[in-house]
Amino acid sequence: MKIKFILLFFMVAMSAFAQKVADKIQSKKLNEDRNFSIILPPSYENSPDKKYPILVLLDGEYLADPFSGILKYGNYWDDLPEIIIVAVNQNYGETRFNDSNYGEDGLPAESGAKFFEFIGFELLPYIQQKYRTLPFRIIAGHDTTAGFLNFYLYKDDPIFNAYISISPEMAPEMEVRIAERLAKTQKPVFYYQATSKADLEEIQENTKKLDDVAKEIKNPNVNYRYDVFQNTSHYSLVTEAIPSAFYFIFNGYQPISKLEFNEKILKLESGYAQYLIDKYDNLEKKIGLKIQPRYSDFKAIEAAILKNKAYSELENLGAYADKQYPKTMLGTYHRGLYFEKIGDYKRAAKEYQSAYTKSEIGDLTKNYILDRAEALKSKKEEPKQEIEESAPVETPTETPAEAPKKDE
User: Fold this and answer.
1) Which residues of 273-302 are buried (b: 16+ CB within 10 A; e: fewer)?
2) Looking at the chain, which residues constitute the CATH 3.40.50.1820 domain(s)?
3) How far is CA 141 from CA 63, 84, 147, in A?
4) What is the DSSP string of 30-88?
5) Alpha-carbon distance 232 to 167, whole Å?
6) How does pLDDT run across 31-63, given as a tens digit for each residue?
7) Cα–Cα distances in Å, from 301 out to 26, 34, 335, 364?
8) Which of these, 316, 305, 324, 289, lies nearest to 403 by C-alpha position?
């Protein structure tokens, strides 16, 4: 328990360094001014061409710090992307219950219907006009607001792509309707719900009913996860649910880890370079994140190719490196390594010498590449299955190497 409190303190401390801006909208739907906070990513001001996903955070006055802290911590280690947080203030009192109001039919009613429209017709357009945003949107809430956020999933074309429902208090028939909508969705949806063994019984029962149906859904567009925490209360489970939800939604964003390297990549019979290509293509297709493949991931794939002696894959890896790091020696190095491995030392040396004219990258330096070419001059032209490896081939670590900018 002490560790959890230390983690929470660290999360809150990290969030203090975020660019948090108070804002408000004069809402025609609510017939009042509605206050909210914008928490901008650290890179926002210095990256004028970069766009970011949006997180609309209900109960923003008490959820903003833990959500922001986890995001900043994950981004520090390049495990989570940067996100613009829109924290809606609901005062954890009468306001949040009015905002979440629904009728006997289990649909938003009166003040709840007005708040539902405020988010979709006023708040989101305002944010998209004022800030640089990607079309990938997340909504999150806790208990009452966690139940309310599910109403957006009822629409034929939901405005949110991901839902974080922490200990939700559900409206009538909500668990049935959610499952029906997930089964029919035509675009990728990420749905996360969490409860605990010490949570309110009704919440446990309803989330379990939804889970029983949702886990059987065969729709390939549905990405679903359900967590039941063991030693947390209705309130403390929030600190465990937040990182679990983010790592679920952004699965695949992280650099290649030792576990992924050993359990997935090394076990491939072929397609090592394609694995890397797909990793980053999927991020763009599902989430809209177009990021430069990390240098450390190139080195992980290289290490797998060499370990499994799939040397022809080095040519494919080199071609992909040329597209992603065109001004560096990375792609040329991989082609040189390919020729070296098949015993064509003249062509290998030629490639290495050609790489000398390009920019260094990571641990590939001009001195190293020239030494590599020089060492091949005394070798005979005969194919070899394997030679002693002096290249700086590394298996992935949990701390990724910093990738240079694409124009380097």
Assistant:
1) bbbbbebbeebeebbbbeeebbbbbbbbbb
2) 2-249
3) 8, 16, 8
4) TTEEEEEEEEE-TTTTT-TT--EEEEEESSHHHHHHHHHHHHHHHHHTTSS---EEEEE
5) 11
6) 999 999 999 999 999 999 999 999 999 999 999
7) 53, 50, 14, 16
8) 324
- Contact status, residue 395 vs residue 363, Cβ threshold 8 Å: no
What is the CATH number assigned to the segment(s) 258-375? 1.25.40.10
Encoding tokens for residue 167? 């200990």
- Residue 291 structure tokens: 């990021």
The C-alpha atoms of residue 222 and residue 188 are separated, in whole angstroms, by 6
Higher pLDDT, 391 or 352: 352
CATH superfamily, domain 2-249, is Alpha/Beta hydrolase fold, catalytic domain (3.40.50.1820)
Are the C-beta atoms of residues 283 and 291 closer than 8 Å to each other? yes
In whole angstroms, give the CA distance from residue 95 to residue 49: 37
User: Cα 356 vs. chain centroid, distance in angstroms?
Assistant: 36
What's the one-letter identity of residue 104?
Answer: E
pTM to 2 decimals? 0.86
Q: Is the dihedral of CA 77, 82, 88, 89 positive or negative?
A: positive
Give the closest residue to 314 by CA, choosing from 295, 338, 350.
338
SS3 of the chain: helix, strand, coil, percent, to 5? 45, 15, 40
Could you tell me the pLDDT band of residue 14, with boundaries at 50, 70 and 90? very low
Asked whether 120 and 56 are in contact (CB, 8 A), the reply is no
Q: Where in the chain is the domain with CATH 1.25.40.10?
A: 258-375
Q: How far is CA 403 from CA 107, 319, 342, 361, in A?
A: 49, 18, 29, 8
Q: Sign (positive/negative) of CA torsion 250, 252, 253, 255?
A: positive
Helix axes 295-307, 272-287, angle to 10 degrees: 150
